[in-house]
Amino acid sequence: MIEISPGIAVSEHELSFSFERSPGPGGQNVNKVNTRVTLHFDVARSTSLSNHQKTALRSNLGSRISQEGVLRVHSSKERTQLANRRAAVNRFIELLNGAFSVPKPRKKTRVPAAANARRIEAKAQQGAVKRLRSQRVTLDD
Question: Domain holding 68: CATH number?
């Protein structure tokens, strides 16, 4: 089981991996070995997640989930397949954590009176500078 957050875990059997040649680092190795890893997670058929969690995933990660309901995570940062596999699983955990977290509600605040006064003062100074620039100066010989 892969622990996503306390109380939420996904079975490793629900994840599948595919491997391709990587456009990333690897030198000559990049042309010979399939080091790019793509993690596939079928959200629609998952038995580890509740319907509420599946809905949260679809709404928060909708652009990453295909029409078939499969979430794909790619990794090609590392030179080895194993390291890319670990990186894909870590990214998968981060994505699910972000999708399940509830954002903190914003508290309405007021602009402090002193800050408002500083803003008005700065505007007045800028206006005075512009007025001085526009005045014509005549040179008497």
Answer: 3.30.160.20
